[in-house]
Amino acid sequence: MAFLLMFVTVLHLITLAMLFIATMEKSWWSWDTTKNSDLWYNCHYDNGSGAWMCTSTKETEWLQSVQALMVLSVVFCSISFLVFLVQLFCMSKGGLFYITGLCQIFAGLTAFTATLIYTLHHTEILEGDEKTGQFGYCFILAWVCVPLLLCSGVMYVHLRKKE
């Protein structure tokens, strides 16, 4: 049981880090090595200065939905971890981690909804500039987080506190 507890805790921390990176990094859509777009900025690499030049993205309703859902997913995952720590030290023997599991499942569902919206509406979000590019690593990272969050949520629901 200690191994399962350690595995779920490490999985939770990994998914939290992956969600945070997917939400904050610059690569939800990439055109080439010198131009990419994320949930917050459109960036291009300036060879003259050797730096990334970023401008705010034009906020569409779809993009605002994706932004809100990804932030909500990070918040749910963070709350889930804090609740898990509180339950781990305060819950009586034999108790189940229902609240932690439900928060983690909600985090997975919000991340799923955000990535699904971006998948289906990237043409509106990018305003027709998507023809030469492809999905970036942060988008893929967000999709990878979805099953990990849902699996860890289910594991938390079935996990019992042992002495």
What is shown here, in short?
The protein has 163 residues and is of the alpha+beta class. Helices cover 64% and strands 13% of the residues.
Cα end-to-end separation? 10 Å
| Rg, Cα atoms, Å | 18 Å
Count of DSSP E strands? 5
The coarse overall form would be elongated
What is the SS-derived class?
alpha+beta
**Relative strand content:** 5-15%
Give me the side-by-side strand order of the main sheet.
4-3-2-1-5
**Share in helix:** 55-70%
Taking pLDDT < 50 over at least 5 consecutive residues as the criterion, the unreliable ranges are: none
Residue-averaged pLDDT:
86
Largest beta-sheet characterization: 5 strands, antiparallel
- Tell me the number of helical segments per DSSP (H or I, 4 or more residues long): 4
Q: Output the helix-strand order.
A: HEEEEHHEH
Family: Belongs to the PMP-22/EMP/MP20 family.
Signal peptide: 1-17
Protein name: Epithelial membrane protein 3
Subcellular location: Membrane
